[in-house]
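Appendix C reproduces, verbatim, an entry submitted by the partner laboratory led by Prof. M.T., so that reviewers can inspect both the input and the predicted structure.
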Amino acid sequence: MTINLKKQLMSILRTVTEPVLLLDEKKCRNNIQRMADKAKRNNIRLRPHFKTHQSRHIAEWFREAGVNCITVSSLRMATYFAEQGWKDITVAFPVNTLEHERINRLARNLNLNLIVADLEAARLLSATVRYPVQLWIKVDSGSRRTGVLPEDNKTVDAILEVINVSASLSFRGFLTHAGQSYNCRSRDEIMNVHRKTVALMTDLAERYRSAFPGLEISTGDTPTCSVAEDFSMVDEIRPGNFVFYDLTQALVTACEKRDIAVAVACPVVAKHADRNEIILYGGGIHFSKEYLDPGDGKKIFGELVRLSDNGWSEPLEGCYVSKLSQEHGTLKVTDEVFSQISVGEVVAILPVHSCMTANLLAGYITLSGKRFEYFDAKREYYM
Protein backbone atom coordinates (compact mmCIF):
# COMPACT_ATOMS: atom_id res chain seq x y z
CA MET A 1 0.00 0.00 0.00
CA THR A 2 2.85 2.38 0.82
CA ILE A 3 4.46 1.58 -2.52
CA ASN A 4 1.19 2.29 -4.31
CA LEU A 5 0.83 5.62 -2.51
CA LYS A 6 4.37 6.55 -3.45
CA LYS A 7 3.68 5.66 -7.07
CA GLN A 8 0.49 7.73 -6.97
CA LEU A 9 2.29 10.72 -5.48
CA MET A 10 5.14 10.54 -7.96
CA SER A 11 2.59 10.25 -10.77
CA ILE A 12 0.78 13.34 -9.47
CA LEU A 13 3.99 15.34 -9.24
CA ARG A 14 4.83 14.54 -12.85
CA THR A 15 1.66 16.43 -13.83
CA VAL A 16 2.59 19.54 -11.82
CA THR A 17 3.75 22.38 -14.05
CA GLU A 18 2.80 25.31 -11.82
CA PRO A 19 2.13 25.87 -8.12
CA VAL A 20 -0.64 23.67 -6.73
CA LEU A 21 -1.90 22.89 -3.24
CA LEU A 22 -1.38 19.31 -2.10
CA LEU A 23 -3.88 18.02 0.46
CA ASP A 24 -3.24 15.18 2.87
CA GLU A 25 -6.72 13.74 3.34
CA LYS A 26 -5.78 11.64 6.37
CA LYS A 27 -4.34 14.59 8.29
CA CYS A 28 -7.28 16.77 7.32
CA ARG A 29 -9.86 14.22 8.44
CA ASN A 30 -7.96 13.69 11.69
CA ASN A 31 -8.02 17.43 12.39
CA ILE A 32 -11.76 17.54 11.73
CA GLN A 33 -12.52 14.53 13.90
CA ARG A 34 -10.39 15.79 16.78
CA MET A 35 -12.34 19.06 16.94
CA ALA A 36 -15.69 17.29 16.50
CA ASP A 37 -14.84 14.97 19.38
CA LYS A 38 -13.91 17.92 21.60
CA ALA A 39 -17.23 19.63 20.91
CA LYS A 40 -19.08 16.41 21.66
CA ARG A 41 -17.23 15.95 24.98
CA ASN A 42 -18.28 19.48 25.97
CA ASN A 43 -21.86 19.00 24.74
CA ILE A 44 -21.58 22.11 22.57
CA ARG A 45 -22.13 22.85 18.90
CA LEU A 46 -19.24 22.81 16.45
CA ARG A 47 -20.00 25.37 13.75
CA PRO A 48 -16.73 25.27 11.79
CA HIS A 49 -15.66 28.23 9.72
CA PHE A 50 -15.46 27.12 6.10
CA LYS A 51 -13.50 30.19 4.94
CA THR A 52 -10.28 28.18 5.22
CA HIS A 53 -11.05 25.34 2.82
CA GLN A 54 -14.02 26.80 0.84
CA SER A 55 -14.62 23.45 -0.86
CA ARG A 56 -17.80 21.41 -1.16
CA HIS A 57 -15.69 18.24 -1.21
CA ILE A 58 -13.96 18.94 2.10
CA ALA A 59 -17.30 20.09 3.53
CA GLU A 60 -18.55 16.52 3.15
CA TRP A 61 -15.82 15.29 5.50
CA PHE A 62 -17.31 17.57 8.16
CA ARG A 63 -20.76 16.17 7.49
CA GLU A 64 -19.38 12.67 7.95
CA ALA A 65 -18.00 13.80 11.34
CA GLY A 66 -21.50 14.84 12.45
CA VAL A 67 -21.37 18.56 11.69
CA ASN A 68 -24.70 20.04 10.54
CA CYS A 69 -24.17 23.81 10.85
CA ILE A 70 -21.41 26.01 9.47
CA THR A 71 -19.81 29.43 9.43
CA VAL A 72 -18.79 31.35 6.30
CA SER A 73 -17.29 34.76 5.63
CA SER A 74 -19.59 36.12 2.92
CA LEU A 75 -23.16 35.87 1.72
CA ARG A 76 -21.97 34.61 -1.65
CA MET A 77 -20.08 31.81 0.10
CA ALA A 78 -23.20 31.04 2.11
CA THR A 79 -25.09 30.58 -1.15
CA TYR A 80 -22.40 28.25 -2.49
CA PHE A 81 -22.69 25.97 0.53
CA ALA A 82 -26.48 26.28 0.63
CA GLU A 83 -26.46 24.78 -2.87
CA GLN A 84 -24.71 21.77 -1.30
CA GLY A 85 -27.52 21.26 1.22
CA TRP A 86 -26.21 23.19 4.25
CA LYS A 87 -29.28 24.68 5.93
CA ASP A 88 -27.91 26.38 9.07
CA ILE A 89 -25.31 29.02 8.21
CA THR A 90 -23.71 31.91 10.10
CA VAL A 91 -22.05 34.65 8.09
CA ALA A 92 -19.33 35.72 10.52
CA PHE A 93 -18.59 39.07 8.94
CA PRO A 94 -20.35 42.31 9.92
CA VAL A 95 -23.51 42.38 7.86
CA ASN A 96 -23.20 44.28 4.60
CA THR A 97 -26.68 45.76 4.23
CA LEU A 98 -26.02 46.63 0.57
CA GLU A 99 -26.47 42.90 -0.09
CA HIS A 100 -30.06 42.90 1.16
CA GLU A 101 -31.37 41.05 -1.88
CA ARG A 102 -28.96 38.17 -1.29
CA ILE A 103 -29.80 38.23 2.43
CA ASN A 104 -33.49 37.86 1.69
CA ARG A 105 -32.90 35.08 -0.83
CA LEU A 106 -30.89 33.11 1.71
CA ALA A 107 -33.20 33.83 4.64
CA ARG A 108 -36.16 32.58 2.62
CA ASN A 109 -34.52 29.18 2.17
CA LEU A 110 -32.47 28.40 5.28
CA ASN A 111 -31.66 29.25 8.87
CA LEU A 112 -29.54 32.36 8.34
CA ASN A 113 -27.52 33.89 11.16
CA LEU A 114 -25.89 37.30 10.68
CA ILE A 115 -23.71 39.44 12.92
CA VAL A 116 -23.93 43.14 13.69
CA ALA A 117 -21.18 45.23 15.21
CA ASP A 118 -22.84 48.59 14.72
CA LEU A 119 -26.18 50.15 15.61
CA GLU A 120 -26.70 51.74 12.19
CA ALA A 121 -26.16 48.39 10.48
CA ALA A 122 -28.88 46.88 12.68
CA ARG A 123 -31.27 49.67 11.71
CA LEU A 124 -30.53 49.31 7.99
CA LEU A 125 -30.94 45.55 8.17
CA SER A 126 -34.26 45.86 10.00
CA ALA A 127 -35.53 48.15 7.24
CA THR A 128 -34.65 45.77 4.38
CA VAL A 129 -34.95 42.16 5.61
CA ARG A 130 -38.26 40.43 4.79
CA TYR A 131 -37.64 36.91 6.11
CA PRO A 132 -36.60 35.58 9.53
CA VAL A 133 -32.96 36.25 10.38
CA GLN A 134 -31.22 35.53 13.66
CA LEU A 135 -28.70 38.13 14.78
CA TRP A 136 -25.55 37.76 16.80
CA ILE A 137 -24.07 40.88 18.36
CA LYS A 138 -20.34 40.86 17.63
CA VAL A 139 -18.26 41.54 20.74
CA ASP A 140 -14.69 42.83 20.72
CA SER A 141 -13.09 40.61 23.33
CA GLY A 142 -9.59 42.01 22.84
CA SER A 143 -8.52 41.72 19.21
CA ARG A 144 -9.57 45.31 18.40
CA ARG A 145 -10.72 44.41 14.89
CA THR A 146 -14.42 45.13 15.17
CA GLY A 147 -17.29 44.56 17.55
CA VAL A 148 -19.10 46.20 20.41
CA LEU A 149 -16.99 46.63 23.53
CA PRO A 150 -18.33 44.37 26.30
CA GLU A 151 -18.81 47.29 28.68
CA ASP A 152 -20.76 49.32 26.10
CA ASN A 153 -24.23 48.59 27.46
CA LYS A 154 -25.64 51.63 25.68
CA THR A 155 -24.88 50.28 22.20
CA VAL A 156 -25.95 46.74 23.10
CA ASP A 157 -29.24 48.04 24.48
CA ALA A 158 -29.85 50.14 21.36
CA ILE A 159 -29.20 47.20 19.03
CA LEU A 160 -31.50 44.97 21.08
CA GLU A 161 -34.23 47.61 20.89
CA VAL A 162 -33.98 47.54 17.07
CA ILE A 163 -34.21 43.74 17.10
CA ASN A 164 -37.15 43.71 19.49
CA VAL A 165 -39.34 45.93 17.32
CA SER A 166 -38.42 44.16 14.08
CA ALA A 167 -40.86 41.71 12.53
CA SER A 168 -38.04 39.64 10.99
CA LEU A 169 -35.04 39.86 13.32
CA SER A 170 -34.47 37.80 16.45
CA PHE A 171 -31.62 37.92 18.94
CA ARG A 172 -29.39 34.83 18.95
CA GLY A 173 -26.74 35.93 21.43
CA PHE A 174 -23.18 37.26 21.69
CA LEU A 175 -20.40 36.19 19.35
CA THR A 176 -16.66 36.86 19.48
CA HIS A 177 -13.39 35.94 17.83
CA ALA A 178 -10.39 36.09 20.16
CA GLY A 179 -7.93 37.03 17.44
CA GLN A 180 -5.43 38.17 20.06
CA SER A 181 -4.62 34.48 20.57
CA TYR A 182 -2.46 34.72 17.44
CA ASN A 183 -0.01 36.83 19.43
CA CYS A 184 0.59 33.96 21.85
CA ARG A 185 3.75 31.88 21.86
CA SER A 186 2.85 29.22 24.42
CA ARG A 187 -0.09 27.10 25.44
CA ASP A 188 -0.22 28.88 28.79
CA GLU A 189 -0.65 32.19 26.99
CA ILE A 190 -3.42 30.71 24.82
CA MET A 191 -5.19 29.38 27.91
CA ASN A 192 -4.99 32.82 29.48
CA VAL A 193 -6.71 34.33 26.42
CA HIS A 194 -9.33 31.56 26.54
CA ARG A 195 -10.14 32.08 30.23
CA LYS A 196 -10.37 35.86 29.88
CA THR A 197 -12.56 35.61 26.77
CA VAL A 198 -14.97 33.13 28.32
CA ALA A 199 -15.21 35.16 31.54
CA LEU A 200 -15.88 38.36 29.62
CA MET A 201 -18.53 36.73 27.43
CA THR A 202 -20.32 34.99 30.29
CA ASP A 203 -20.40 38.21 32.33
CA LEU A 204 -21.93 40.03 29.37
CA ALA A 205 -24.47 37.28 28.73
CA GLU A 206 -25.58 37.23 32.37
CA ARG A 207 -26.46 40.92 32.20
CA TYR A 208 -29.05 40.13 29.53
CA ARG A 209 -30.11 36.58 30.34
CA SER A 210 -33.20 37.54 32.32
CA ALA A 211 -34.58 39.43 29.33
CA PHE A 212 -33.33 36.84 26.81
CA PRO A 213 -33.20 33.47 28.62
CA GLY A 214 -32.34 31.61 25.43
CA LEU A 215 -29.37 33.74 24.38
CA GLU A 216 -26.18 31.90 23.45
CA ILE A 217 -22.43 32.48 23.48
CA SER A 218 -20.37 31.74 20.38
CA THR A 219 -16.57 31.82 20.38
CA GLY A 220 -14.17 30.86 17.69
CA ASP A 221 -10.48 30.99 16.96
CA THR A 222 -8.29 28.04 16.15
CA PRO A 223 -5.63 28.56 18.87
CA THR A 224 -8.02 28.54 21.85
CA CYS A 225 -10.29 25.90 20.34
CA SER A 226 -7.28 23.65 19.72
CA VAL A 227 -5.61 24.06 23.10
CA ALA A 228 -8.42 24.51 25.62
CA GLU A 229 -10.47 21.53 26.79
CA ASP A 230 -13.23 23.14 28.88
CA PHE A 231 -15.94 24.93 26.88
CA SER A 232 -18.75 24.30 29.34
CA MET A 233 -19.63 27.99 29.56
CA VAL A 234 -20.19 28.51 25.81
CA ASP A 235 -22.77 27.14 23.40
CA GLU A 236 -20.76 26.85 20.19
CA ILE A 237 -17.25 27.15 18.79
CA ARG A 238 -16.34 28.33 15.29
CA PRO A 239 -12.69 27.50 14.51
CA GLY A 240 -11.68 27.40 10.85
CA ASN A 241 -7.95 27.13 10.24
CA PHE A 242 -7.71 23.88 12.22
CA VAL A 243 -8.91 21.92 9.18
CA PHE A 244 -5.45 22.42 7.63
CA TYR A 245 -3.38 24.25 10.26
CA ASP A 246 -0.19 26.01 9.10
CA LEU A 247 3.15 27.37 10.29
CA THR A 248 1.47 30.24 12.13
CA GLN A 249 -0.59 27.81 14.20
CA ALA A 250 2.56 25.82 14.94
CA LEU A 251 4.33 29.01 16.06
CA VAL A 252 1.54 29.94 18.46
CA THR A 253 1.58 26.29 19.72
CA ALA A 254 -1.95 25.48 18.54
CA CYS A 255 -0.66 22.44 16.63
CA GLU A 256 2.41 20.43 15.74
CA LYS A 257 3.93 20.82 12.29
CA ARG A 258 3.05 17.19 11.60
CA ASP A 259 -0.64 18.22 11.80
CA ILE A 260 -0.39 20.59 8.82
CA ALA A 261 -2.53 19.04 6.08
CA VAL A 262 -1.55 21.15 3.05
CA ALA A 263 1.69 21.89 1.22
CA VAL A 264 2.38 23.94 -1.88
CA ALA A 265 4.04 22.01 -4.71
CA CYS A 266 6.38 24.37 -6.59
CA PRO A 267 8.53 23.77 -9.68
CA VAL A 268 12.25 24.55 -9.31
CA VAL A 269 13.36 26.99 -12.02
CA ALA A 270 16.89 28.10 -11.04
CA LYS A 271 19.74 27.48 -8.58
CA HIS A 272 22.41 29.87 -7.23
CA ALA A 273 25.29 28.01 -5.62
CA ASP A 274 27.08 31.17 -4.45
CA ARG A 275 24.34 31.81 -1.93
CA ASN A 276 22.67 28.40 -1.51
CA GLU A 277 19.42 29.70 -2.93
CA ILE A 278 16.91 27.90 -5.12
CA ILE A 279 14.35 29.84 -7.13
CA LEU A 280 10.82 28.46 -7.16
CA TYR A 281 7.86 29.12 -9.36
CA GLY A 282 5.78 30.15 -6.40
CA GLY A 283 5.48 33.75 -5.23
CA GLY A 284 3.24 36.15 -3.40
CA ILE A 285 0.31 35.44 -5.71
CA HIS A 286 0.48 31.80 -4.62
CA PHE A 287 1.47 31.94 -0.94
CA SER A 288 0.42 35.48 0.06
CA LYS A 289 3.13 37.65 1.55
CA GLU A 290 2.51 36.79 5.18
CA TYR A 291 5.63 35.69 6.99
CA LEU A 292 6.92 34.55 10.35
CA ASP A 293 9.52 36.53 12.25
CA PRO A 294 11.41 34.16 14.54
CA GLY A 295 13.30 37.10 16.03
CA ASP A 296 16.70 36.46 14.47
CA GLY A 297 16.35 38.83 11.54
CA LYS A 298 14.94 36.20 9.17
CA LYS A 299 11.59 36.30 7.44
CA ILE A 300 10.04 32.89 6.84
CA PHE A 301 7.42 32.69 4.08
CA GLY A 302 7.27 28.89 4.14
CA GLU A 303 9.31 25.84 5.09
CA LEU A 304 10.64 23.07 2.87
CA VAL A 305 9.44 19.51 3.42
CA ARG A 306 10.62 16.35 1.73
CA LEU A 307 7.98 14.48 -0.25
CA SER A 308 7.84 10.89 0.89
CA ASP A 309 5.86 7.65 0.75
CA ASN A 310 3.36 9.02 3.27
CA GLY A 311 3.05 12.53 1.90
CA TRP A 312 5.75 14.76 3.32
CA SER A 313 8.26 14.96 6.12
CA GLU A 314 8.71 17.39 8.97
CA PRO A 315 10.31 20.66 7.75
CA LEU A 316 13.99 20.35 6.87
CA GLU A 317 16.26 22.20 9.28
CA GLY A 318 17.62 25.45 7.84
CA CYS A 319 15.51 25.29 4.66
CA TYR A 320 12.91 28.00 4.24
CA VAL A 321 11.44 30.47 1.76
CA SER A 322 13.27 33.71 2.54
CA LYS A 323 11.81 36.06 -0.09
CA LEU A 324 8.74 36.34 -2.29
CA SER A 325 8.01 38.55 -5.25
CA GLN A 326 4.98 38.22 -7.48
CA GLU A 327 5.93 34.91 -9.15
CA HIS A 328 9.34 34.14 -7.61
CA GLY A 329 10.04 32.34 -4.37
CA THR A 330 13.58 32.25 -2.97
CA LEU A 331 14.30 29.05 -1.07
CA LYS A 332 17.27 29.20 1.30
CA VAL A 333 18.76 25.74 1.89
CA THR A 334 21.74 23.95 3.41
CA ASP A 335 24.70 22.69 1.34
CA GLU A 336 23.42 19.13 1.54
CA VAL A 337 19.89 19.96 0.41
CA PHE A 338 21.17 22.26 -2.35
CA SER A 339 23.01 19.33 -3.92
CA GLN A 340 19.90 17.14 -3.77
CA ILE A 341 17.51 19.45 -5.64
CA SER A 342 17.61 19.94 -9.40
CA VAL A 343 16.03 22.41 -11.80
CA GLY A 344 12.89 20.84 -13.26
CA GLU A 345 11.94 19.08 -10.04
CA VAL A 346 8.97 19.87 -7.82
CA VAL A 347 9.43 20.64 -4.13
CA ALA A 348 6.84 21.11 -1.38
CA ILE A 349 6.51 24.06 1.00
CA LEU A 350 4.41 24.32 4.16
CA PRO A 351 2.48 27.62 4.11
CA VAL A 352 2.53 30.34 6.74
CA HIS A 353 -1.21 31.01 6.42
CA SER A 354 -3.16 28.17 4.85
CA CYS A 355 -6.40 30.18 4.54
CA MET A 356 -4.75 32.77 2.29
CA THR A 357 -2.72 30.22 0.36
CA ALA A 358 -5.78 28.07 -0.33
CA ASN A 359 -7.66 31.15 -1.50
CA LEU A 360 -4.89 32.10 -3.92
CA LEU A 361 -4.36 28.61 -5.34
CA ALA A 362 -8.12 27.92 -5.48
CA GLY A 363 -8.09 24.14 -5.68
CA TYR A 364 -6.57 20.99 -4.25
CA ILE A 365 -4.91 17.77 -5.33
CA THR A 366 -5.06 15.01 -2.72
CA LEU A 367 -2.22 12.56 -2.26
CA SER A 368 -4.38 9.94 -3.96
CA GLY A 369 -4.83 12.17 -7.02
CA LYS A 370 -8.34 13.51 -6.45
CA ARG A 371 -8.92 17.10 -7.54
CA PHE A 372 -11.21 19.24 -5.41
CA GLU A 373 -12.83 22.45 -6.54
CA TYR A 374 -12.75 25.70 -4.58
CA PHE A 375 -15.50 28.28 -4.14
CA ASP A 376 -15.44 30.83 -6.96
CA ALA A 377 -15.97 34.23 -5.35
CA LYS A 378 -16.70 35.85 -8.72
CA ARG A 379 -19.47 33.47 -9.71
CA GLU A 380 -23.10 34.10 -8.81
CA TYR A 381 -24.55 31.07 -7.00
CA TYR A 382 -28.26 30.30 -6.77
CA MET A 383 -29.95 27.81 -4.50
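The chain has a mean pLDDT of 96. Additional entries are available on request from the coordinating office.
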